[in-house]
Design a protein that fits this description.
about 30% helix
């Protein structure tokens, strides 16, 4: 609503080019690589660092809602986003552990900008 335009909570990324202030906007539907915090369409140690910085340093996560971020970054599929997800990815990279629970292919996640190529 126009009354919330001066507040950060009144804004979100639009699915329409140029945005849609004051108009109904469909939620973002995108293809994401599970665990890809950096949104570079690759899964690597930078994603682990991003999750840790988000959890402990307050950096923003890539998606527009906590639910979408949890879907994207809950690599161990325990229903939450926490340090165990970063450790799960480290195990995958360095100890040949299991890949992210949603796999290594792009998946549809509502509320995230598209990051898969």
């Amino acid at each position: 609503p126009a009354s919330a335009w001066s507040e950060a909570s009144g804004w979100r990324q639009s699915s329409q080019l140029g945005g849609s202030p004051g108009r109904v906007d469909e939620p973002l539907v995108s293809q994401q690589l599970p665990g890809d915090f950096t949104q570079d369409a690759q899964l690597n140690v930078a994603d682990v660092i991003g999750v840790i910085r988000h959890l402990f340093g307050g950096t923003s996560a890539p998606c527009n809602s906590p639910e979408a971020n949890t879907t994207l970054l809950d690599t161990n599929s325990d229903g939450g986003l926490d340090l165990s997800d970063a450790l799960y990815l480290m195990r995958y990279f360095f100890q040949r552990g299991a890949p992210p629970s949603l796999g290594l292919d792009c998946v549809t996640i509502f509320g995230c900008p598209s990051a898969c190529q």
